Amino acid sequence: MSGKTKGTALIVGASRGLGYALAEDLLRRGWDVIGTVRATGGEKLAALAQQSNGRLRVATCDITSDTDLVALRKHLHGEALDLLFINAGVSNGRGETIAGVSTDSFVRIMTTNALAPLRTLECLEDLVAKNGILAVMSSGLGSVTNNTTGGWESYRASKAALNTLMRSFSARHAGDTRAMVLVAPGWVRTDMGGPAATLGIEESIPLVVDTVLAQAGQPGLKFLDRFGETVPW
To answer: What is the pLDDT of residues 173-201, one digit of tens each?
Structure first.
């Protein structure tokens, strides 16, 4: 069975929520981790780094900033990564319809959830080993096929755009030997998911990590849920 047991992972967007849980889970499995935070709000990850015996390093980057991305790429020069996992997401909430979304809000969500993650992938992917994994946190709400209720509409659009951009990336790298995976973690109780979400982080992230690591040695792009089942585009 294909899979990867340990190595070096870069988790982009690791200050809280799903990204922090990814870093914590990979450390528990014996991985070395680099986690990025924005200029503020990284105290929790910094505390985890202090407890990690040097296995967690923290870097600063706001992936919506061109300048920050260039600086991060320079900072990581010479790193050899086995896993690059990009986690980013903002939302206006469950009941939102496109009729009520301002242009500024829509641009913010599309930039944060679609443009910035794929621009980050383009900037950092050459650091990932030929048998490594390129992973991006998507959402089941990004499935056009499964959208039968509406709601979360700018968020849905942004994750569908993210998926399409990842498809374009994989098409341009058709001979790439690395695994590429978009992951739908489920509706998780985080600051963004809210208290009504159906899953705790501990019910989602270990399965997400299992699924992502199992893709090592399997080139090509997949859109998977936390159980490793295919999500329809």
So the answer is: 999 999 999 999 999 998 888 888 889 99
pTM as predicted: 0.95
34 pLDDT tier (thresholds 50, 70, 90): very high
SS (H, E, C) the chain: CCCCCCCEEEEECCCCHHHHHHHHHHHHCCCEEEEEECCCCCHHHHHHHHCCCCCEEEEECCCCCHHHHHHHHHHCCCCCEEEEEECCCCCCCCCCCHHHCCHHHHHHHHHHHHHHHHHHHHHHHHHEEEEEEEEEECCHHHCCCCCCCCCCHHHHHHHHHHHHHHHHHHHHCCCCCCEEEEEECCCECCCCCCCCCCECHHHHHHHHHHHHHCCCCCCEEEEEECCCCECCC
The residue assigned the tokens 């969500």 is 109
